[in-house]
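For practice. Supply one:
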Amino acid sequence: MNTWTSDRPTLRAGVLSGALVLLSGCLSVPTDVAQPADGQGASSASLQGGAADEQVLAGKPVPEVPLVGGDVILRAPEGYCVDLETVENRRTRAFAMIAGCQILSNGQTGGYVPPVLVTATVGSRNRGASLPTPEQIATSAGSDLLGGTVRDGVSVAQLAQGGDATLDGGDPRHWRAVLQVGGRRVGLALYAPEGSAMAASEGGAVLLETARSTLAASADAAQPEQAEPALPLGTDEANAAGDNPTPGGVAPSQPRQGLGAAIGSLFNGDALR
């Protein structure tokens, strides 16, 4: 399984971690936060046209970015932006980070917002997947559950352990959410500096806003799906795809992956791990 541990997002996370800790101490925005360079991060061809392309070419953070061919439009909450240097955008899976626009633009755009780091991982299509409960999210993470809710098609959980292992100087408490977008599971996680209110009660609202904004943006951009042509019965390709019924019309049983493993694979996609 691809665990998305490329060097670029990991190194970028270290830079952002330092910036978040400084901001949590009410210090000024650091001047050494890297800017997206030409040829790094998501290319303009991978983004939507118009203003988004212009911002990419200018090396500016953007409020949203299309992932996995536009099936999912990741949209950041107000005051936050997608860090283009961390975008890993492939046909079946994608990853990106969100932080304050002020941090990502080296203080050039955006006002102060509570410092957090949000990771987003998009999984492959699985239209039959159910939305996990907060308890199941906690179990898959091996963490105690502090609280959670299922609202508007989003399952949100506050976890007691693990945030400090992901974010340098981070609080062990962190938030995770799972939602379904266009038949794909999307995993979101929010990490905050130690002692931050965002690691306590306030982070859930920000993560829920991220999920709702992403659902709304993805619905607006959704295109009618094209039906794939059926494969001829009896071919190896059709057999492998499960298009050929077995005698009596009973489809052969397929091995099922446990729900915990399926949820965990989303958050194992965090490039910080």
In short: The chain has eight helices and nine strands. Confidence is low (pLDDT under 50) at residues 1-6, 21-53, 225-257.
